[in-house]
Amino acid sequence: MFDLYKAFILHKNNYLFLLDLKDQELYANVPQNFTSGTRVSFFAGATTGSFSQFALSDWRGLIKLDDDVTFEDAASAIVNPLTVVGMLHTTKEHGVQAVVHNAAASALGRQFSRYFKDHGVQVINIVRRQQQVDLLLSEGAEIVLNETSENFLQELKELSQKLNATFLFEPVAGETTGKLLEQLPNGSTAFVYGFLGGNYVNNISVELLAFQNKTITGWWLTPWLRKNQILQKEEFLSELNKLLKGSLKTTYAKQFGLAEINEAIQFYQNNQTQGKVLIRPFKQ
């Protein structure tokens, strides 16, 4: 039995459709804009996942897609784009006009740079290689620092102080978080949202926390969505469909069929900066 908030989703010919279960009670609380044949991206239930022919999803986790949103754009319509939207919302909520973002050449980082710039927030992007510096600059980023540069920490300190960049969005953790936060103005906050450098945040000095009034906290998409309920706002969903084709568009380095998944993993490990890899179960 499924409760009144549930609906089946079908993967068919590389698209996602809402199935007609011919059960009016099941759809009693589903908005009228979700009908049989509606194309959607979705959050799958924790017990079912989405890597299957059928998936079970709460209708409140559905994103209705416009007809001109491609399968490629729809496949990455949720986690990265909505995370970037949420981070900007958090930034604006606190009146912050400049931020620092580490690992900025990732797929999320590139979206972050474009989207924040479009909304008038200055971003100090941090990357690890000159190739990544060139990539972000070619996409319109205004400030990109290479952490392997001899003067990196001094440059970060001077820029963050000059721009009053008091938010740090940090997906690396380990010793990196404290090292970067140390350069930011007093009263700054580090939002840790990943652990590329390890499961712990290490070597945070008492001076940072007690005498410079700096804060380290986490940022996670799920509770932010739960709190703000933006997926139930028609105006936002309409805007998201446009953004998926623009500043929140995902770039794929290569696409693979399901039978090529081992090759896909190897390719991604060797070419991460080029973009994401897309697995197409129905690819011939």
Share of helical residues = 25-40%
Largest sheet: 6 strands, parallel
**Average pLDDT value?**
86
Principal-axes geometry comes out as globular
- Tally of extended strands? 13
Spatial sequence of strands, sheet with the most strands: 8-7-6-9-10-11
Q: How far apart lie the N and C ends?
A: 36 Å
Share of residues in strands = 15-25%
Structural class: alpha/beta
List unreliable stretches of 5+ residues. Answer: 1-16, 19-26
- Overall radius of gyration: 21 Å
Total helical elements: 10
Question: What's the helix-strand series?
Answer: EEEEEHHEHEHEHEHEHEHHEHE
Give a brief description:
By secondary structure, the chain is of the alpha/beta class.
Structure description:
The protein is α/β, with parallel strands linked by helices. 33% of the residues lie in helices and 21% in strands. It contains ten helices and 13 strands. The strands form four sheets. Strands 8-7-6-9-10-11 form a six-stranded parallel sheet, with helices on both faces. Helix 7 (206-211) links the parallel strand 10 and strand 11 (215-218). Helix 2 crosses helix 3 (107-118). The chain is globular, with a radius of gyration of 21 Å.
Question: In terms of topology, how is this protein built?
Answer:
Elements: E1 6-12, E2 15-18, E3 40-42, E4 54-58, E5 62-64, H1 71-75, H2 79-93, E6 98-101, H3 107-118, E7 122-127, H4 130-138, E8 143-146, H5 152-163, E9 167-170, H6 176-181, E10 189-192, H7 206-211, E11 215-218, H8 221-228, H9 234-243, E12 252-257, H10 261-270, E13 276-280
Parallel strand pairs: 6-7, 6-9, 7-8, 9-10, 10-11, 12-13
Antiparallel strand pairs: 1-2, 1-4, 3-5
Helix pairs in contact: 2-3
